[in-house]
Amino acid sequence: MVGLVLVSHSRALAEAAAELARKVSAEEGLPITAAGGTGEGREELGTDATDIMEAIERVYSDDGVLILMDMGSAVLSSQMALDLLGDRAEKVKLCSAPFVEGAIGAAVQLSIGSPLGEIIEECLQALLAKREQIGDVKD
Q1: Which of 8, 86, 97, 131 has its CB 3.0 to 4.6 Å from that of 13, i.e. a possible disulfide?
Q2: d(CA 92, CA 63)
Q3: Whole-number Å distance between alpha carbons of 134 and 88
Q4: How far apart are CA 53 and CA 129, in angstroms?
Q5: Non-local CB neighbours of 76 within 8 Å, separated by 6+ positions
Q6: What residues have CB less than 8 Å from 45, skipping those under 6 apart?
Q7: In a structure prediction context, what are the per-residue pLDDT tens digits for the chain, which is 139 residues long?
Q8: Residue 80: strand, helix, or coil
Q9: Contact between 71 and 100 (Cβ < 8 Å)
Q10: pTM given for the model
């Protein structure tokens, strides 16, 4: 099964997004984990490539791992984490999908056993329903 890593500058935000994704999917034991924060107890804002690498290792499988990041240095730290993984990094993909909507879409896809490519596609479409409902999609 594909693993999901949620990376935020706020560990509390990453853990909350992971909890929400698990609850929405209604599937027990999904390989979803959070990374983020720095300092003692990960309470300070920031990201750490080693923390992200450890999160990847917690959910790693040969089916792959998807990483969703909130912004900025979370992307850079995630890229650095891939460098730390060595050969296993080829099974890990970063995705530019929106953090919360993407996490929920990914969790639903995980729960039905979708492959990594399909999960990424679902995540990248995560904002369409909201955009259509609000009407801010430009023709």
Answers
A1: 8
A2: 9
A3: 41
A4: 32
A5: 47
A6: 9, 10, 37, 38
A7: 999 999 999 999 999 999 999 999 888 899 999 999 999 999 999 999 999 999 999 999 999 999 999 998 999 999 999 999 999 999 999 999 999 999 999 999 999 999 999 999 999 999 888 888 898 866 6
A8: helix
A9: no
A10: 0.94
What is the phi-psi region of residue 67: left when phi exceeds 0, alpha when psi lies from -120 to 50, beta otherwise?
beta
One-letter amino acid identity for 61? S
> Minimal CA–CA distance to 21: which of 109, 95, 92?
109
What single-letter amino acid sits at 5? V
Classified by CATH at the fold level, domain 3-134 comes out as Rossmann fold (3.40.50)
What are the tokens at 63? Answer: 């089916």
Token representation of residue 76: 């850079």
- Name the residue type at position 28: E
Which helix or strand (DSSP H or E) is residue 88 part of?
A: none
Q: Which of 99, 107, 122, 46 is nearest to 77 (CA)?
A: 46
